[in-house]
Amino acid sequence: MSKSGVGMRVVIIGSGASWPDAERSSPSQVIVIGKEPLLFDCGPGTGMNLMKAGISPAATSRIFLTHLHMDHSLEFPSIVFGGYLVGRKEKVYLYGPPGTVDFCKSMFEKVYPSAPEIVRSIREDGWNVMPYEATKRLTCEGDSYRVLSVPVEHRIPAVAYRIQTGEGAVVISGDTRPSKSLIELAEGADLLIHECSFPDDMIDLARRTNHSAASEVGEVANQAGVKRVVLTHLFPIWKGREKEMVKSAKSKFSGEVLAGRDLLEINV
Question: DSSP label at 200?
Answer without folding.
Answer: G
